[in-house]
From TrEMBL:
<keyword id="KW-0808">Transferase</keyword>
<dbReference type="InterPro" id="IPR005786">
    <property type="entry name" value="B_amino_transII"/>
</dbReference>
<dbReference type="InterPro" id="IPR043131">
    <property type="entry name" value="BCAT-like_N"/>
</dbReference>
<feature type="modified residue" description="N6-(pyridoxal phosphate)lysine">
    <location>
        <position position="184"/>
    </location>
</feature>
<dbReference type="InterPro" id="IPR036038">
    <property type="entry name" value="Aminotransferase-like"/>
</dbReference>
<comment type="pathway">
    <text>Amino-acid biosynthesis; L-valine biosynthesis; L-valine from pyruvate: step 4/4.</text>
</comment>
<dbReference type="InterPro" id="IPR043132">
    <property type="entry name" value="BCAT-like_C"/>
</dbReference>
<dbReference type="InterPro" id="IPR001544">
    <property type="entry name" value="Aminotrans_IV"/>
</dbReference>
<dbReference type="Pfam" id="PF01063">
    <property type="entry name" value="Aminotran_4"/>
</dbReference>
<dbReference type="GO" id="GO:0004084">
    <property type="term" value="F:branched-chain-amino-acid transaminase activity"/>
</dbReference>
<dbReference type="GO" id="GO:0009099">
    <property type="term" value="P:L-valine biosynthetic process"/>
</dbReference>
<comment type="pathway">
    <text>Amino-acid biosynthesis; L-leucine biosynthesis; L-leucine from 3-methyl-2-oxobutanoate: step 4/4.</text>
</comment>
<dbReference type="InterPro" id="IPR033939">
    <property type="entry name" value="BCAT_family"/>
</dbReference>
<protein>
    <recommendedName>
        <fullName>branched-chain-amino-acid transaminase</fullName>
        <ecNumber>2.6.1.42</ecNumber>
    </recommendedName>
</protein>
<dbReference type="GO" id="GO:0009098">
    <property type="term" value="P:L-leucine biosynthetic process"/>
</dbReference>
<dbReference type="GO" id="GO:0009097">
    <property type="term" value="P:isoleucine biosynthetic process"/>
</dbReference>
<keyword id="KW-0663">Pyridoxal phosphate</keyword>
Length: 341
Protein backbone atom coordinates (compact mmCIF):
# COMPACT_ATOMS: atom_id res chain seq x y z
CA UNK A 1 0.00 0.00 0.00
CA UNK A 2 1.49 3.33 -1.08
CA UNK A 3 1.30 5.95 1.62
CA UNK A 4 -0.08 9.40 0.83
CA UNK A 5 2.50 12.08 0.33
CA UNK A 6 1.99 13.86 3.65
CA UNK A 7 4.55 15.66 5.83
CA UNK A 8 3.72 13.39 8.80
CA UNK A 9 6.07 15.02 11.34
CA UNK A 10 4.51 18.43 10.79
CA UNK A 11 0.85 17.47 10.88
CA UNK A 12 -1.15 19.22 13.58
CA UNK A 13 -4.45 18.19 15.15
CA UNK A 14 -6.73 19.42 12.36
CA UNK A 15 -9.30 17.66 10.21
CA UNK A 16 -7.87 16.30 6.97
CA UNK A 17 -10.37 14.36 4.85
CA UNK A 18 -9.36 10.77 4.02
CA UNK A 19 -10.78 8.50 1.27
CA UNK A 20 -13.52 6.55 3.01
CA UNK A 21 -15.87 6.79 5.97
CA UNK A 22 -18.38 4.30 7.42
CA UNK A 23 -22.11 5.06 7.63
CA UNK A 24 -24.96 3.02 9.16
CA UNK A 25 -28.55 4.17 9.65
CA UNK A 26 -31.06 3.22 12.34
CA UNK A 27 -34.65 3.16 11.05
CA UNK A 28 -37.81 1.28 12.07
CA UNK A 29 -36.07 0.04 15.19
CA UNK A 30 -33.01 -1.51 13.54
CA UNK A 31 -29.57 -0.73 12.11
CA UNK A 32 -29.00 -1.30 8.39
CA UNK A 33 -25.89 -3.19 7.33
CA UNK A 34 -23.71 -0.09 6.90
CA UNK A 35 -21.42 0.95 4.04
CA UNK A 36 -18.16 2.72 3.33
CA UNK A 37 -18.65 5.90 1.32
CA UNK A 38 -16.51 8.60 -0.24
CA UNK A 39 -19.04 11.30 0.61
CA UNK A 40 -17.76 13.36 3.55
CA UNK A 41 -20.90 15.53 3.75
CA UNK A 42 -24.10 14.82 5.66
CA UNK A 43 -27.45 16.21 4.51
CA UNK A 44 -30.08 16.35 7.23
CA UNK A 45 -33.49 17.88 7.83
CA UNK A 46 -33.35 21.33 9.48
CA UNK A 47 -35.23 19.92 12.49
CA UNK A 48 -33.04 16.83 13.04
CA UNK A 49 -32.82 15.81 16.70
CA UNK A 50 -29.09 16.44 16.83
CA UNK A 51 -29.55 20.11 15.88
CA UNK A 52 -32.41 20.83 18.26
CA UNK A 53 -31.59 18.92 21.44
CA UNK A 54 -27.95 17.87 20.96
CA UNK A 55 -28.63 14.15 20.86
CA UNK A 56 -25.15 12.99 19.88
CA UNK A 57 -22.34 10.91 21.37
CA UNK A 58 -18.82 10.21 20.15
CA UNK A 59 -15.62 8.24 20.65
CA UNK A 60 -11.96 8.79 19.84
CA UNK A 61 -9.14 6.31 19.29
CA UNK A 62 -6.02 5.94 17.20
CA UNK A 63 -4.64 3.63 14.54
CA UNK A 64 -0.90 3.56 13.98
CA UNK A 65 1.92 1.53 12.48
CA UNK A 66 3.91 -0.71 14.84
CA UNK A 67 7.64 -1.38 14.72
CA UNK A 68 7.10 -4.53 12.62
CA UNK A 69 4.87 -2.77 10.10
CA UNK A 70 1.38 -3.79 11.22
CA UNK A 71 -1.48 -1.31 11.33
CA UNK A 72 -3.19 -1.69 14.71
CA UNK A 73 -5.77 -0.03 16.98
CA UNK A 74 -5.60 0.11 20.77
CA UNK A 75 -8.48 -1.56 22.67
CA UNK A 76 -11.31 -0.49 20.29
CA UNK A 77 -13.72 -2.82 22.11
CA UNK A 78 -13.54 -0.51 25.15
CA UNK A 79 -14.51 2.45 22.97
CA UNK A 80 -17.45 0.39 21.67
CA UNK A 81 -18.54 -0.44 25.21
CA UNK A 82 -18.23 3.17 26.30
CA UNK A 83 -20.30 4.34 23.32
CA UNK A 84 -22.98 1.84 24.36
CA UNK A 85 -23.04 3.43 27.82
CA UNK A 86 -23.13 6.94 26.36
CA UNK A 87 -25.95 6.07 23.94
CA UNK A 88 -28.12 4.55 26.69
CA UNK A 89 -27.77 7.66 28.84
CA UNK A 90 -29.01 9.86 25.96
CA UNK A 91 -31.84 7.45 25.01
CA UNK A 92 -30.15 6.50 21.76
CA UNK A 93 -30.06 3.00 20.24
CA UNK A 94 -26.99 0.89 20.95
CA UNK A 95 -24.62 0.16 18.08
CA UNK A 96 -23.43 -3.32 19.10
CA UNK A 97 -19.81 -3.52 20.28
CA UNK A 98 -18.83 -6.22 17.72
CA UNK A 99 -20.26 -4.11 14.91
CA UNK A 100 -18.54 -1.02 16.32
CA UNK A 101 -15.17 -2.77 16.24
CA UNK A 102 -15.84 -4.08 12.71
CA UNK A 103 -16.78 -0.61 11.47
CA UNK A 104 -13.65 0.90 13.03
CA UNK A 105 -11.45 -1.82 11.49
CA UNK A 106 -13.08 -1.49 8.04
CA UNK A 107 -12.71 2.29 8.05
CA UNK A 108 -9.06 2.15 9.08
CA UNK A 109 -8.33 -0.52 6.46
CA UNK A 110 -10.00 1.58 3.75
CA UNK A 111 -7.76 4.51 4.72
CA UNK A 112 -4.53 2.54 5.21
CA UNK A 113 -2.68 4.97 2.93
CA UNK A 114 -3.28 7.63 5.58
CA UNK A 115 -1.94 5.65 8.54
CA UNK A 116 1.35 7.39 9.34
CA UNK A 117 4.53 5.29 9.14
CA UNK A 118 6.23 3.91 12.26
CA UNK A 119 8.61 6.37 13.87
CA UNK A 120 6.86 9.51 12.54
CA UNK A 121 5.08 10.04 15.86
CA UNK A 122 1.92 10.75 13.86
CA UNK A 123 -1.22 8.58 14.03
CA UNK A 124 -4.56 8.13 12.29
CA UNK A 125 -7.20 9.50 14.63
CA UNK A 126 -10.48 7.58 14.44
CA UNK A 127 -13.75 9.30 15.32
CA UNK A 128 -16.89 7.13 15.68
CA UNK A 129 -20.07 9.08 16.48
CA UNK A 130 -23.84 8.83 16.42
CA UNK A 131 -26.64 11.37 16.23
CA UNK A 132 -30.44 11.73 15.94
CA UNK A 133 -31.42 12.38 12.32
CA UNK A 134 -35.21 12.68 12.02
CA UNK A 135 -37.18 15.89 12.76
CA UNK A 136 -37.80 16.39 16.49
CA UNK A 137 -39.50 19.53 17.78
CA UNK A 138 -41.35 18.36 20.91
CA UNK A 139 -38.70 17.34 23.43
CA UNK A 140 -38.17 13.60 23.00
CA UNK A 141 -35.57 11.20 21.66
CA UNK A 142 -35.28 10.89 17.87
CA UNK A 143 -36.59 7.73 16.17
CA UNK A 144 -33.85 7.60 13.55
CA UNK A 145 -30.08 7.78 13.98
CA UNK A 146 -26.89 7.68 12.00
CA UNK A 147 -23.65 6.05 13.18
CA UNK A 148 -20.48 7.15 11.37
CA UNK A 149 -16.75 6.61 11.58
CA UNK A 150 -14.26 8.91 9.91
CA UNK A 151 -10.49 9.07 10.21
CA UNK A 152 -8.02 11.93 10.01
CA UNK A 153 -4.22 11.84 10.24
CA UNK A 154 -2.84 13.80 13.20
CA UNK A 155 0.69 14.84 14.05
CA UNK A 156 2.92 13.91 16.98
CA UNK A 157 1.37 15.33 20.15
CA UNK A 158 4.62 16.53 21.68
CA UNK A 159 6.81 18.28 19.16
CA UNK A 160 10.28 18.66 20.62
CA UNK A 161 9.53 16.93 23.94
CA UNK A 162 6.67 17.09 26.42
CA UNK A 163 6.57 20.48 28.08
CA UNK A 164 4.72 20.36 31.43
CA UNK A 165 1.36 22.13 31.51
CA UNK A 166 0.10 24.84 33.84
CA UNK A 167 -3.48 24.36 35.02
CA UNK A 168 -5.91 26.58 36.86
CA UNK A 169 -8.64 25.51 39.25
CA UNK A 170 -11.78 26.44 37.34
CA UNK A 171 -14.65 28.51 38.69
CA UNK A 172 -16.88 26.69 36.21
CA UNK A 173 -18.26 23.19 36.69
CA UNK A 174 -17.82 20.38 34.19
CA UNK A 175 -20.37 17.87 35.42
CA UNK A 176 -23.33 17.84 37.79
CA UNK A 177 -23.88 15.08 40.36
CA UNK A 178 -26.07 12.46 38.63
CA UNK A 179 -25.57 14.31 35.34
CA UNK A 180 -23.72 13.30 32.18
CA UNK A 181 -20.05 13.74 33.15
CA UNK A 182 -19.38 10.01 32.79
CA UNK A 183 -20.45 9.78 29.13
CA UNK A 184 -18.67 10.97 26.00
CA UNK A 185 -21.14 13.44 24.57
CA UNK A 186 -20.72 16.70 22.68
CA UNK A 187 -22.97 18.41 25.21
CA UNK A 188 -20.22 18.14 27.87
CA UNK A 189 -17.82 19.84 25.48
CA UNK A 190 -20.17 22.59 24.27
CA UNK A 191 -20.46 23.96 27.77
CA UNK A 192 -16.72 23.58 28.45
CA UNK A 193 -15.69 25.86 25.58
CA UNK A 194 -16.26 29.09 27.49
CA UNK A 195 -14.30 27.72 30.45
CA UNK A 196 -11.30 26.69 28.34
CA UNK A 197 -11.25 29.97 26.40
CA UNK A 198 -11.31 31.79 29.75
CA UNK A 199 -8.41 29.65 31.04
CA UNK A 200 -6.40 30.34 27.88
CA UNK A 201 -7.12 34.07 28.09
CA UNK A 202 -5.69 33.98 31.62
CA UNK A 203 -2.54 32.18 30.45
CA UNK A 204 -3.36 28.60 31.51
CA UNK A 205 -3.22 25.45 29.39
CA UNK A 206 -6.14 23.61 30.96
CA UNK A 207 -8.78 23.73 33.68
CA UNK A 208 -8.79 21.49 36.72
CA UNK A 209 -12.44 20.89 37.55
CA UNK A 210 -13.48 20.11 41.10
CA UNK A 211 -16.68 18.25 42.01
CA UNK A 212 -19.58 20.69 41.63
CA UNK A 213 -21.38 19.66 44.83
CA UNK A 214 -18.62 20.49 47.32
CA UNK A 215 -15.74 21.93 45.28
CA UNK A 216 -13.30 19.93 47.42
CA UNK A 217 -12.56 16.89 45.24
CA UNK A 218 -10.49 16.62 42.08
CA UNK A 219 -12.45 15.53 39.00
CA UNK A 220 -10.69 15.96 35.64
CA UNK A 221 -9.91 18.52 32.94
CA UNK A 222 -12.15 19.20 29.95
CA UNK A 223 -10.87 16.15 28.09
CA UNK A 224 -8.37 14.17 30.17
CA UNK A 225 -8.27 12.28 33.50
CA UNK A 226 -5.75 12.98 36.27
CA UNK A 227 -3.05 10.66 37.45
CA UNK A 228 -0.93 11.52 40.51
CA UNK A 229 2.21 9.95 41.95
CA UNK A 230 2.79 10.15 45.70
CA UNK A 231 6.22 10.79 47.21
CA UNK A 232 6.50 7.07 48.00
CA UNK A 233 5.65 6.18 44.40
CA UNK A 234 2.01 5.09 44.61
CA UNK A 235 -0.12 5.83 41.56
CA UNK A 236 -3.34 7.61 42.57
CA UNK A 237 -6.28 8.48 40.33
CA UNK A 238 -9.56 10.15 41.31
CA UNK A 239 -12.65 7.98 41.54
CA UNK A 240 -15.99 9.68 40.88
CA UNK A 241 -19.28 8.96 39.10
CA UNK A 242 -18.95 12.21 37.18
CA UNK A 243 -15.57 11.51 35.55
CA UNK A 244 -15.33 10.15 32.02
CA UNK A 245 -13.77 6.67 32.31
CA UNK A 246 -10.60 7.19 30.25
CA UNK A 247 -9.33 4.07 28.52
CA UNK A 248 -5.79 5.45 28.72
CA UNK A 249 -6.09 5.94 32.48
CA UNK A 250 -7.46 2.42 32.99
CA UNK A 251 -4.62 1.02 30.85
CA UNK A 252 -2.00 3.03 32.75
CA UNK A 253 -3.25 1.72 36.10
CA UNK A 254 -2.93 -1.82 34.79
CA UNK A 255 0.57 -1.11 33.50
CA UNK A 256 1.56 0.48 36.83
CA UNK A 257 0.45 -2.55 38.79
CA UNK A 258 1.32 -5.44 36.48
CA UNK A 259 4.35 -4.19 34.53
CA UNK A 260 6.00 -1.78 36.96
CA UNK A 261 4.97 -3.38 40.27
CA UNK A 262 3.67 -0.08 41.66
CA UNK A 263 0.91 0.31 44.18
CA UNK A 264 -2.22 1.84 42.63
CA UNK A 265 -5.18 3.55 44.28
CA UNK A 266 -8.43 4.61 42.66
CA UNK A 267 -10.11 6.77 45.28
CA UNK A 268 -11.51 10.17 46.17
CA UNK A 269 -8.74 12.75 45.82
CA UNK A 270 -9.26 15.94 47.81
CA UNK A 271 -7.87 19.13 46.34
CA UNK A 272 -6.18 19.78 49.69
CA UNK A 273 -3.88 16.78 49.22
CA UNK A 274 -2.77 17.70 45.69
CA UNK A 275 0.10 19.82 47.07
CA UNK A 276 1.58 16.66 48.64
CA UNK A 277 1.92 14.66 45.40
CA UNK A 278 5.28 14.34 43.68
CA UNK A 279 4.05 14.14 40.08
CA UNK A 280 0.91 14.90 38.14
CA UNK A 281 -0.20 14.03 34.63
CA UNK A 282 -3.23 14.18 32.35
CA UNK A 283 -4.20 11.07 30.45
CA UNK A 284 -6.14 10.56 27.28
CA UNK A 285 -5.84 9.08 23.81
CA UNK A 286 -4.34 12.22 22.25
CA UNK A 287 -1.12 12.45 24.30
CA UNK A 288 -1.23 9.24 26.42
CA UNK A 289 0.14 11.34 29.35
CA UNK A 290 0.83 15.07 29.43
CA UNK A 291 2.91 16.10 32.43
CA UNK A 292 1.51 18.85 34.69
CA UNK A 293 4.10 21.14 36.26
CA UNK A 294 1.95 23.64 38.08
CA UNK A 295 -1.63 24.11 39.29
CA UNK A 296 -2.82 27.58 40.24
CA UNK A 297 -5.75 27.99 42.62
CA UNK A 298 -6.79 31.65 42.59
CA UNK A 299 -3.23 32.90 42.89
CA UNK A 300 -1.93 30.08 45.10
CA UNK A 301 0.59 27.95 43.21
CA UNK A 302 1.21 24.24 43.57
CA UNK A 303 4.42 23.14 41.84
CA UNK A 304 5.20 19.44 41.52
CA UNK A 305 8.77 18.87 42.74
CA UNK A 306 9.65 16.58 39.83
CA UNK A 307 7.87 17.77 36.76
CA UNK A 308 8.17 21.53 36.38
CA UNK A 309 10.92 21.26 33.77
CA UNK A 310 10.09 17.86 32.25
CA UNK A 311 8.03 14.71 32.81
CA UNK A 312 8.63 13.27 36.29
CA UNK A 313 10.41 9.87 36.53
CA UNK A 314 7.42 7.64 37.35
CA UNK A 315 5.12 9.28 34.83
CA UNK A 316 7.90 8.92 32.27
CA UNK A 317 8.12 5.18 33.06
CA UNK A 318 4.35 4.78 32.72
CA UNK A 319 4.45 6.68 29.44
CA UNK A 320 7.35 4.63 28.04
CA UNK A 321 5.77 1.33 29.04
CA UNK A 322 2.30 2.05 27.63
CA UNK A 323 3.63 3.53 24.38
CA UNK A 324 6.03 0.54 24.16
CA UNK A 325 3.04 -1.80 24.40
CA UNK A 326 1.16 0.23 21.78
CA UNK A 327 4.10 0.33 19.37
CA UNK A 328 4.82 -3.37 19.71
CA UNK A 329 8.19 -3.56 21.43
CA UNK A 330 6.75 -4.53 24.83
CA UNK A 331 4.40 -7.50 24.94
CA UNK A 332 0.78 -6.40 25.30
CA UNK A 333 -1.79 -7.92 27.65
CA UNK A 334 -4.19 -10.28 25.87
CA UNK A 335 -6.69 -8.41 23.70
CA UNK A 336 -5.21 -4.91 23.90
CA UNK A 337 -3.91 -4.66 20.34
CA UNK A 338 -6.32 -5.12 17.44
CA UNK A 339 -4.30 -5.96 14.34
CA UNK A 340 -5.91 -4.47 11.24
CA UNK A 341 -3.39 -5.55 8.63
C1 LIG B 1 -12.26 11.17 25.92
C2 LIG B 1 -12.10 11.80 27.25
C3 LIG B 1 -11.05 11.43 28.12
C4 LIG B 1 -9.93 10.50 27.73
O1 LIG B 1 -10.37 9.20 27.48
P1 LIG B 1 -9.48 8.18 26.65
O2 LIG B 1 -10.35 6.99 26.49
O3 LIG B 1 -8.28 7.88 27.45
O4 LIG B 1 -9.13 8.85 25.36
C5 LIG B 1 -11.03 12.02 29.38
N1 LIG B 1 -11.95 12.92 29.77
C6 LIG B 1 -12.96 13.30 28.96
C7 LIG B 1 -13.95 14.28 29.44
C8 LIG B 1 -13.08 12.75 27.67
O5 LIG B 1 -14.08 13.13 26.87
Amino acid sequence: MDKKNIDWENLGFDYVATSKRYVANFRDGKWDEGILTEDSNITLNECAGVFQYAQTVFEGLKAYTTENGHIVAFRPDLNGQRMTDSAKRLEMPVFPVERFVEAVVETIRANAAYVPPFGSGATLYVRPYMFGTNPVIGVKPADEYQFRVFTTPVGPYFKGGAKPLTLCVSDFDRAAPHGTGHIKAGLNYAMSLHAIMTAHANGFDENMYLDSATRTKVEETGGANFIFITKDNTVVTPQSDTILPSITRRSLLYVAEHYLGLKVEERTVYFDEVKDFAECGLCGTAAVISPVGKIVDHGKEICFPSGVEKMGPTIQKLYDTLTGIQMGHIEAPEGWIKVIE
